[in-house]
């Protein structure tokens, strides 16, 4: 199968990378079902990358329906080692304005209905997740944003992303609760993805693109999809520039990431005693430990 070391998962508003050249559509089947869409493999800045539209290219999958395991497994099967997520988020802090970008370094899990581990059916693993994004990849992403001097865009390095279940947006009480916890932004997708990427030993970082002030801000109406769409287009254009610059920097200087050996001390079940069917199912993820 075609290989690519860098993967990109595009969220709401980012369904395609315009600058990709020599594009090939790759349909991947995984032991965890089909990904959200075909993966688009092409060349960006002279480097092979794999792009996936998280909700499908026609945005037909809600956050609770996303096949997170299949998406990450599909990236792994193409050889992806660095995964960049682009995501629309609401802002929980006045200083993170619509059109701003945040490269979060923490997550809070408020999901209720997601499968966010590959490990079950006789094999138990507990990955370390104190630092849920790869600090080196996040650094490359943030430096790329800085280098572009985008109009009307402020960069926030670090911050806490609350991952809620959705699909309805938060109540004001919830939004204010998250603010009282010191959280910076809110979305519905990134936490399961970050956990699964870590289990798959893929370095993961997020470019969060602010679209709204959720519903807590006294001077702004509560978030609606219209409000989000108004900012998605500019955010998507900016995100593509940032991703292109990030790919250029990553391929020139691919960092060592602790994520690449995340399973080394995580697996509790002796693999020689583990069910063969599960070892086969986990295939590529477990391969180097068998
Ligand atoms: C379009 S508003 C809500 C929707 O947008 C974000 O998606 P993504 O992270 O894929 O950009 C948010 O998490 C919700 O799924
Ligand atoms: N306010 C918000 N809450 C959850 N997800 C979002 N995605 C974009 N804006 C959001």
TrEMBL record:
Domain called Nucleoside phosphorylase: residue spans: 5-247
Matching InterPro entries: MTAP (IPR010044), Nucleoside_phosphorylase_d (IPR000845), Nucleoside_phosphorylase_sf (IPR035994), Purine_phosphorylase-2_CS (IPR018099)
GO molecular function annotation: S-methyl-5-thioadenosine phosphorylase activity
Keywords of this entry: Glycosyltransferase, Purine salvage, Transferase
A Pfam short name: PNP_UDP_1
Site positions (Important for substrate specificity): 170, 225
Role noted for this protein: Catalyzes the reversible phosphorylation of S-methyl-5'-thioadenosine (MTA) to adenine and 5-methylthioribose-1-phosphate. Involved in the breakdown of MTA, a major by-product of polyamine biosynthesis. Responsible for the first step in the methionine salvage pathway after MTA has been generated from S-adenosylmethionine. Has broad substrate specificity with 6-aminopurine nucleosides as preferred substrates.
Protein name according to UniProt: S-methyl-5'-thioadenosine phosphorylase
Organism (species): Desertifilum tharense IPPAS B-1220
